[in-house]
């Protein structure tokens, strides 16, 4: 018999009937297809996880503030089974990633960030209701037996770490860097979001001091207070307290290494706009000075900047408030510049 075999496919509505096209007719028996060995390459994927299991696991992840893992688990559960839910989860994941990036870069305040997280949690609840009764097996942590499947979400304990770096070489103009650090501490302590920040400091910094602190502290915000060399770099100290340049090229390479952690740099130093431009190319908000700035003006700027961060404001808002705080010499209000992605922001 000369059979015209065109293709084999599963009827997914029952996951049991294999049909073969014979001269345009779907009526060849299952036994006939088995005889020709079609089972080896056309077996359906076994669905072993139940809706109740994935629901319990995902709600546990959400309660533990592990929204990214919850999204990944749900996407794996419906992959290849429900394209509509898969596309919806892809959209939710994109929203989550953008929200996290905007928070790291200081583009949104805490209220906007929390509002998006709340909306994502609501959307996931609706998606869970639409899940198929069975799906792909997903390896995710399960809650203990005595844990509720709908526990109250825990408050996030994540803090943004600020690394304050100060250099005040003996032969240069002496700056009141101790006062600047105290003012920053005070403003953060007064803020409604004070529990969201941790301040670390290093004084009389040398290049090795900076590189070690960047590795051990892994800060999100880096504050340098001292002097600048213009295009040549920033002024740090050597082993006996004399001035030593920290070249712009080296600064560029430093922040290339830490761009995933650092979201903002404040160069409270004269003639530091060149370094601000270079660092900002790594997707970091950077404040630099386009001219010499007085000690009192620099401290006033720092007060306004951290005052704003302490209230949950973003970097652009903080920059504006910081400039407003420069009142001793109104001409200095235009010296600070805010850079991002290699461009000066006109704000």
List the helices and strands and how they pair.
Layout: E1 5-10, E2 18-22, E3 25-26, H1 30-35, E4 49-50, H2 51-63, H3 67-78, H4 83-104, H5 110-129, E5 134-135, E6 160-166, H6 177-190, E7 197-202, H7 207-217, E8 221-226, E9 233-237, E10 243-247, H8 248-257, E11 264-269, H9 273-280, E12 285-289, H10 295-309, H11 315-324, E13 336-340, E14 343-344
Parallel strand pairs: 6-7, 6-8, 8-11, 11-12
Antiparallel strand pairs: 1-2, 2-3, 4-5, 9-10, 12-13, 13-14
Helix pairs in contact: 2-3, 3-4, 4-5, 6-10, 8-9, 10-11
Strand order of the largest sheet: 7-6-8-11-12-13-14
By oligomeric state, this entry counts as single chain
Kindly provide the radius of gyration, computed on alpha-carbon positions and rounded to a whole number of angstroms: 29 Å
Q: Runs with pLDDT <50, length 5+?
A: 1-45, 142-157
Question: What is the CA–CA distance across the termini?
Answer: 82 Å
Total DSSP E strands: 14
Question: H/E series, N to C?
Answer: EEEHEHHHHEEHEHEEEHEHEHHEE
Largest sheet: 7 strands, mixed
What structural class do the secondary elements suggest? alpha/beta
Q: Indicate the percent of residues in helices.
A: 40-55%
Overall, the morphology is elongated
Strand content: 15-25%
- Count of DSSP-assigned helices: 11
Average predicted local confidence, pLDDT: 83
Description:
- The chain has helices spanning 30-35, 51-63, 67-78, 83-104, 110-129, 177-190, 207-217, 248-257, 273-280, 295-309, 315-324, and strands spanning 5-10, 18-22, 25-26, 49-50, 134-135, 160-166, 197-202, 221-226, 233-237, 243-247, 264-269, 285-289, 336-340, 343-344.
- By secondary structure, it is of the alpha/beta class.
- The strands form 4 sheets. Strands 7-6-8-11-12-13-14 form a 7-stranded mixed sheet, with helices on both faces. Strands 1-2-3 form a 3-stranded antiparallel sheet, with no helix packed on it.
- α2 packs antiparallel against α3 (67-78) and α10 runs antiparallel to α11 (315-324).
- It is elongated, with a radius of gyration of 29 Å.
């Amino acid at each position: 018999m000369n059979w015209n075999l065109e293709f084999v496919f599963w009827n997914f509505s029952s996951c049991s009937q294999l049909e073969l096209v014979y001269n345009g007719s779907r009526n060849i028996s299952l036994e006939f297809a088995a005889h020709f060995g079609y089972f080896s390459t056309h077996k359906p994927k076994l669905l072993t996880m139940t809706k109740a299991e994935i629901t319990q696991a995902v709600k546990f992840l959400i309660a533990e503030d592990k929204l990214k893992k919850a999204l990944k688990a749900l996407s794996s559960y419906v992959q290849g089974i429900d394209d509509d839910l898969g596309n919806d989860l892809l959209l939710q994941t994109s929203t989550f990633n953008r929200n996290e990036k905007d928070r790291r870069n200081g583009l949104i305040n805490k209220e906007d960030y929390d509002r998006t997280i709340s909306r994502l949690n609501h959307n996931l609840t609706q998606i869970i209701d639409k899940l198929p009764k069975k799906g792909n097996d997903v390896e995710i942590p399960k809650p203990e037996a005595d844990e509720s499947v709908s526990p109250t979400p825990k408050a996030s304990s994540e803090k943004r770490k600020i690394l304050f770096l100060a250099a005040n070489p003996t032969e240069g103009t002496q700056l009141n860097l101790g006062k600047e650090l105290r003012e920053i501490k005070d403003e953060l302590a007064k803020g409604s979001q004070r529990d969201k920040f941790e301040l670390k400091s290093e004084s009389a910094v040398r290049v090795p001091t900076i590189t070690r602190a960047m590795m051990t502290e892994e800060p999100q915000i880096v504050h340098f207070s001292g002097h600048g060399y213009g295009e040549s770099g920033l002024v740090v100290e050597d082993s006996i307290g004399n001035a030593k340049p920290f070249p712009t090229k080296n600064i560029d390479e430093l922040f290339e290494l830490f761009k995933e952690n650092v979201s903002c740099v404040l160069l409270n130093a004269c003639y530091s706009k060149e370094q601000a431009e270079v660092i900002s190319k790594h997707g970091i908000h950077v404040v630099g000075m386009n001219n010499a700035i007085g000690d009192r003006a620099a401290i006033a700027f720092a007060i306004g900047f951290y005052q704003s961060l302490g209230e949950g404001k973003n970097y652009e808002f903080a920059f504006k408030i910081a400039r407003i705080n420069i009142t001793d010499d109104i001409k200095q209000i235009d010296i600070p510049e805010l850079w991002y992605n290699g461009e000066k922001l006109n704000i």
